[in-house]
Amino acid sequence: MQKAENSSLLHGTAPALRLQPPTGEPGAPEPMADGNDRNARVSPAGCTRRDFIRQLACVPALFPRVSGWLPRLATESGDHPTLSAVGRRPLPPPPSPQAPPQLLSFEEILELYKEAIPPSALRDKMMLLLRTPFVSNRAAEAGVRPLKPAVGSLGRTMRVAQWNVNRGLEFDAIRNALSDAKSFTAQAKSDHPETQPEHARRIGEQLAILQSTDVIVLNEVDWGVNRTGFRNVADELARALGMNYAFGAEFVEVDPLTMGLDQRHLDPDLRRACARAGDSKHDAEERARAAMKPDRSRYRGLHGTAIFSRYRLENVRLVPFPTQGYNWYRDEKRAGVAGRTESLIGLATFDEPLIRQVRRGGRMMLFAELRDADLPCGCVTIVATHLEDRTAPDIRRRQMQDLLGLISEIDHPVVIAGDVNTTTHVGMPISVTHALNQTIRSPGTWAARGFFEAVERLTPWGWTYSLADDALAFAHRFNDPTNASVPLFMPNPEEKLFRVVEEFRFADGCCFDFRGDRERSANHRRGKLANSNERGAKGFLPTREMARTYGPVGRYKIDWIFVRPHTLNHPCDDGQSYRFSPHFGRTLLELNHALCRPMSDHSPITVDLPLDEAGAGAGTTGQA
């Protein structure tokens, strides 16, 4: 069966660059969160000021100050190496075609769960899967060519989309949204017959934009997992779209919960995806249990990121991040009573509990080169990535530095797209008891912070001040993690990541485009990155929504597209060339919510990159 599944796939060898294995892989040094071998274990005095109460209340956006009892996951920025200190290093050499890696059997995956240090042969087999991209160019071989949609005065463009598809749980809807406008529109009308004409027009416009994309980056893509019907999601979507694709495995899902062997806890997302009209809660749960029934012959347990393209994919490489920040095997296995309590609070607040996910692997980057005579320099590099959510913002910044260090020598356009998890808070589930013990019982904690810190934590005056200050900070960074951080008053821990990208220079002096012009943005809004990522009345339009939200709480802008154009040596200089610069960045919110259920907990985003010099004042909003 494995040979049949892999017969159409080409791939490359494991990267020659010697990088640390993904977090959680035994038998080798683990990537450290703070640059040493403690792997983010820190002293009680090294605590962030804000994270414990925020996690306890499950309102992460509102309570950054009063939640200061979570041990620090990373040192202050001054302790981290800068990009130059991290070092510029070339990408691994292009892979050479050979037979695809062998997939893991059900029994082998179960052994990877049970054994912290698996046999060396099994570990090597797993590591090859986690370092080898699966690539299919069958669409190019069948004669498929890029659409290069024309957009107003921009002329022909490369249209790029990014979408975190939440594993592909709503596979049929996602497939139709990407490839079958007629079926999708019919379903939308059936689900919402009362839709107003103007809203239906916007959905149709967004559908047309998404279906004319030539390059699509998808995060959270399953291959052979119960919850998505054991589909090879990337391969099936590529066949439906008539596109080439590359898939990189980020994790091997080894948890008995994911494998269907333990059904005590069902993922609410799966229950929602399995529910049918008129189903009771019990009916939906039974459908979910049936979907999770183990199948030893079909389980592959792979989960990762994919690039789809009408351009041929060349020199595809999969590189794990040297910096990981969270150990998905060890730390998830350690989840105790306190962690389960927090999960229940999350369920009650946002209808999103923290479901245990024991995995082997870690976050990674997937690189692919696209070549065409109409492209600037004849080549574009696509970088698809997914930064860690269960870690501190400083670690995500270091992951971005890892990525930038690998592409610094590239002398042609680059597009970075993916889920960057810029939530402005630490997403790691914590042990409440451990955090309390470390903070309250340690004299060093209070000695390090002093009398005023104690007053802030232990008096009504301090609580009032903290809440008021937090409200101000929340308003400052709401849906705009690019806003400048103002220490003490309006901190924004994600701002450093964007500053790193904005200040980065390639070896040839070029940089990423941070421009935001009214005439080149989808909704005529100005501001940093407005051309590439759609802004709203305040900040950016959110791309991630919890199952249950409270006004602005539970909505985040965490999916991004960054573009290095043809020639640009200052990120905000509107006097320079706009060839292959981002235009009309969109967040397709209405499309994601067009059916009875959202297709994903993330909305797709798109951007248009003109293949020729772009005129200003197009009077268009990016529709082909």
What count of domains describes the coordinates? Answer: 1
β-strand amount: 15-25%
Unreliably modeled segments: 1-86, 428-446
Helix content: 25-40%
- Main sheet record: 10 strands, mixed
Tally of separate helices = 22
The strand count comes to: 17
Give the mean pLDDT: 80
Which keywords apply here?
single chain, 624 residues, alpha+beta, Deoxyribonuclease I, Chain A, 10-stranded mixed sheet, 5-stranded mixed sheet, 22 helices, globular
How would you describe what is shown here?
The chain has 624 residues and is an alpha+beta fold. It is built from 22 helices and 17 strands. The protein has helices at residues 2-6, 51-57, 83-86, 106-114, 120-129, 138-141, 171-179, 181-191, 197-211, 233-241, 256-259, 268-274, 281-291, 330-333, 337-350, 393-407, 432-440, 443-449, 451-458, 460-477, 495-503, 589-592, and strands at residues 10-11, 134-136, 150-151, 155-167, 215-223, 244-253, 302-309, 313-320, 359-361, 364-371, 379-386, 414-419, 544-550, 553-556, 559-564, 583-587, 605-610. Strands 1, 2, 3, 4, 5, 6, 7, 9, 16 and 17 form a 10-stranded mixed sheet that branches. β11, α16 (393-407) and β12 (414-419) form a beta-alpha-beta unit. α7 packs parallel to α10 (233-241) and α16 (393-407) packs parallel to α21. The two termini are 42 Å apart. Mean pLDDT is 80; it is low at 1-86 and 428-446.
